[in-house]
Write the structure tokens for this entry.
Amino acid sequence: MQSTPTKADGPQKLLLYDPLTDKGHVKRTDIKDCNVQRGPGPLCYADRFKWPERCWGKLSDDERHRLCRNMRKLCASSHMSGCGGMELILDQILLLVNKQTGEMNNLRCVHACDSADHCQNILASMDARHRPKHIHKALEDRLPLELYLELKEMIPDGHVLIDAQRCAYRRIKEKLFDFFDRTPHMARSSHCVVHGTDCQLYSNDDPDGLTSDSQTRLDYWSSDSLSINCAGLICKDVSRESKTRRGDAGNSALAHLIWTAERRSENGQEDLVLVDCTVDFDASSIAADLGQRYDVYQTTVNATDMGDKYSRPRAMAPMLNQERVVTSDVC
Ligand SMILES: [Zn+2]
């Protein structure tokens, strides 16, 4: 059975699935396609908005138990947060759990970030129930200015051959990974538009967020939370519909590399990570950089799965922390 983690015990594994039925941790190094067959959507307009109840109805008693247990202690952060889609979805799920259990659990959305002012404004205006406690700006904002300027100098002009750009971003990646390895404390805070000052980036239990560097990694892990990070990668560099598509050498490459370097560093490793992108996205690039720490999966979901009339398939890459998560299956 799972015990409450303590500082003395150090990092503990979180059981996503019921210990009685769990078959143990299965390490996977290959991308696993976990598409599943989904049933037809709702038959009337009003039912389109009842997806939490629909999904609840499909769960077994054990699965409902797991969902309730994990939602109670969920600690969420998002990157490239957009208009707060993850926060809204988690809030809908928690409302359902509270309704089913008669409890009054609150969601802990800790960090969000987005480079667009209007997205920051939307995130800040969300209901207090699921509003992120800290809202940060662009990912580049968390790098020391000197390093940021150095990396910008390394990015070639957009008109050069894509191979030359790719080569430049490979060098940038090496520099970033090296920076996070050597000086993780240098990238642990970022300006927060909520508090108007630099706030700590990686703490689970830091509601005021005004401490700079006092919490250690052990403090982070020892909180009895299930931490999740959701990242909406910028689709323009991946989608076949985009005229400016340049893949891993596009305008979003630097932000993506900073996100990767964080997840690769000791400070930024959540229990669960969920990457969302266009269906042309291939998670093998993430697995190449993060496969030593996470089991990486890839699946496709569609609005039609929830009964919507239009088809908009999206790639989802769930990633499970190999040290922290025990599961027999992800789907
Ligand atoms: Zn803050």
About this structure: The first helix runs from residue 51 to 58. The longest strand covers residues 294-301. The domain at 14-326 is CATH 3.40.50.150 (Rossmann fold).
